[in-house]
Write a structure and sequence with these properties.
The chain has helices at about 15-30, 55, 70-80, 90-105, 115-135, 150-165, 190-200, 220-230, 250-255, 255-265, 275-285, 305-320, 330-335, 340-345, 360-375, 385-400, 445-450, 475-480, 525-535, and strands spanning about 5-10, 35-40, 60, 65-70, 90, 135-140, 170-175, 210-215, 235-240, 290-295, 320-330, 350-355, 380, 405, 415-420, 435-440, 455-465, 465-470, 480-490, 490-500, 505-510. With about 525 residues, the chain is an alpha/beta fold. The protein folds into two domains: about 5-255, Rossmann fold (3-Layer(aba) Sandwich), CATH 3.40.50.300; about 285-535, Class I glutamine amidotransferase (GATase) domain (Rossmann fold, 3-Layer(aba) Sandwich). The strands form four sheets. Strands 11-10-12-13-21-20-19-16-17 form a nine-stranded mixed β-sheet, sandwiched between helices. Strands 5-2-6-1-7-8-9 form a seven-stranded parallel β-sheet, sandwiched between helices. Strands 14-15-18 form a three-stranded mixed β-sheet, covered by helices on one side. It is globular. The relative contact order is 0.11. The protein binds glutamine (GLN). Glutamine (GLN) binds next to β17.
């Protein structure tokens, strides 16, 4: 039977609940228990796929093609597991399913209500994941902040689960911000006190309170949080700012969080084996060398939009004992003449052409790509990045001036990037892209083949509607931009990876290898890219 740990948030959202959840998961896993993690998002979208990265940060793609909240990325990276799309539950999914059942007549005779129908649906989904994963411990992070109207049905379901599963089998951990007053340097606990009160008002007494703070929680603040939060002082945990998020599990471990959780849940305590993790963190912290990487995109004002790429770069850099310094290059700024290409890319050692959608900023990105290709700076393009590399190549090397993607110019005379056949009849936009892990066949003798360690087939995750138009394949190949990976989608051939010959990496992939990058096993394509930069 699974144990359930619910993680709630207080005071502010975005205080690092996801990282805290992932860190607790890692500690429990390192004790030798199997762990899975669920993110609950109390919004009405069925999934994150239809949300702008500006609103919500990156859309994380799971192996089974779920378009999910970026916290699933944290869970996968810390726990080193592949999660399912089911591990991201939203209000939209819950209501959709309850209303569908109602229309079908499943509740015949009953008045369908938030309690019990919505709460039952929530509980059954959580239990289904527990059952299917076979995990010893299920972590459930409830998004947003306690007190949000949207979150109430989920908290109510959690409260009921404690009754039904028993106190020994459930635990509540509340993560809340403890701000420091600049003027006095004092850590203020009142907001936490209030958020715990709010939690108690709806019938939940936390078992542990994690204080997110800038500097380690001082004894006085700890004492107050324990007293007003109604928990013993050892159940108050300082989760202060650290150099890297990967250090958080170590911060929690040093305060006995794992031991406390094991005791509460009646699990046998075993010293967690964190040797390799500690190694990685030390490598990250001690690396003196820096590598400057241009991030060419259009959601550059919200770095969370590119979370998994940033992490993949960190993983691969750490592997070589260096740290990436990211230089954000906003396509729109180049397009509008606010930023010159030379200024943007001066001193850059490598570049990532970032994924994206829509026209804005693309001409600026294409201009940056031309510069990168001509100056031989190691460059990788991810998804839209590959597509724009192909557009740039078609225009400036092959000489088709108005070549474009039909996503950006439906009337281009050279649609070198076009809508996939299989996408033409699709009407709705939710969950209908080419999604999830797909096989990529690698071409022997190419850099991609070498990057993947000589494997013939690899699986990477995808999220796109457009693809490289195979009609022009001979032109690309004969001009030197060769295909080094391909796939099939029904009858269609999908070009997956393209590269230029030459000393350095200049490569684009239709896939998103970053989604599978883990601290201890970085994505191979990113490793190869990093190696190419460090060789220069
Ligand atoms: N907009 C492009 C497409 O739909 C690329 C998407 C992406 O970069 N993830 O194919």
């Amino acid at each position: 039977m699974a144990k359930y740990i619910f993680i709630t948030g207080g005071v502010l959202s975005s205080v690092g609940k996801g990282v805290t959840t992932a860190s607790i998961g890692l500690l429990i896993k390192s004790m030798g228990y199997s762990v899975t993690a669920i993110k609950i998002d109390p919004y009405l979208n069925v999934d994150a796929g239809t949300m702008s990265p500006y609103a919500h940060g990156e859309v994380f793609v799971t192996e089974d093609g779920g378009e999910t909240d970026l916290d699933l990325g944290h869970y996968e990276r810390f726990l080193d597991v592949n999660l399912s799309k089911k591990n991201n539950i939203t209000t939209g999914q819950i209501y959709l399913s309850v209303i569908t059942k109602e229309r079908r007549g499943d509740y015949l005779g009953a008045t369908v209500q938030i309690i019990p129908h919505i709460t039952d649906e929530i509980k059954s989904r959580i239990r289904e994941i527990a059952r299917e994963s076979g995990a010893d411990v299920v972590l459930i992070e409830i998004g947003g902040t306690v007190g949000d109207i949207e979150g109430l049905p989920f908290l109510e379901a959690a409260r009921q689960m404690r009754l039904e599963e028993g106190f020994r089998n459930t635990m509540f951990i509340h993560v809340a911000l403890v701000p420091t007053l600049k003027t006095t340097g004092e850590q203020k606990t009142k907001p936490v006190q209030h958020s715990v009160q709010e939690l108690r008002r709806i019938g939940i007494q936390p078992d542990m309170i994690v204080a997110r703070c800038e500097t380690p929680l001082n004894p006085e603040a700890r004492r107050k949080i324990a007293l007003y939060g109604n928990v013993p002082p050892e159940a108050v945990v300082s989760n202060h700012d650290v150099d890297t998020i990967y250090e958080v599990p170590l911060v929690l471990h040093s305060q006995g969080v794992d031991k406390y959780i094991a005791e509460k849940l009646g699990l046998e305590y075993r010293e967690p084996d964190l040797t390799r993790w500690i190694d990685f963190v030390n490598r990250v912290k001690s690396s003196k060398k820096r590598v400057v990487i241009a991030m060419v995109g259009k959601y550059t004002h919200l770095k969370d939009s590119y979370m998994s790429i940033i992490e993949a770069l960190k993983h691969s850099a750490a592997h070589f004992g260096t740290k990436p310094v990211l230089r954000w290059v906003e396509g729109t700024d180049i397009e509008q003449g606010k930023l010159s290409i030379e200024d943007a890319l001066r001193g850059v050692e490598g570049a990532v052409i970032l994924p994206g959608f829509g026209r804005r900023g693309t001409e600026g990105k294409i201009a940056a790509i031309k510069y990168l290709r001509e100056s031989g700076i190691p460059t990788i393009g991810i998804c839209f990045g590959l597509q724009l590399m192909v557009v740039e190549f078609s225009r400036n090397v092959i000489g088709w001036e108005r070549a474009n993607s039909t996503e950006l110019d439906p009337n281009t005379p050279y649609p070198v990037v076009d809508l996939m056949e299989s996408q033409r009849h699709i009407k709705g936009l939710g969950g209908t892209m080419r999604l999830g892990a797909k096989p990529i066949w690698l071409v022997k003798g190419t850099k991609a083949y070498e990057a993947y360690g000589g494997k013939d087939v690899v699986y990477e995750r995808h999220r796109h509607r457009y693809y490289i138009n195979t009609k022009y394949l001979d032109y690309f190949e004969s001009s030197g931009f060769r295909v080094s990976g391909y796939s099939f989608e029904g009858d269609e051939v999908v070009i997956e990876i393209m590269e230029l010959k030459g000393k350095h990496v200049y490569m684009g992939t239709q896939a998103h290898p970053e989604f599978k990058s883990r601290p201890l096993s970085p994505a191979l394509l990113y490793l190869y890219f990093m190696k190419s930069i460090l060789r220069t």
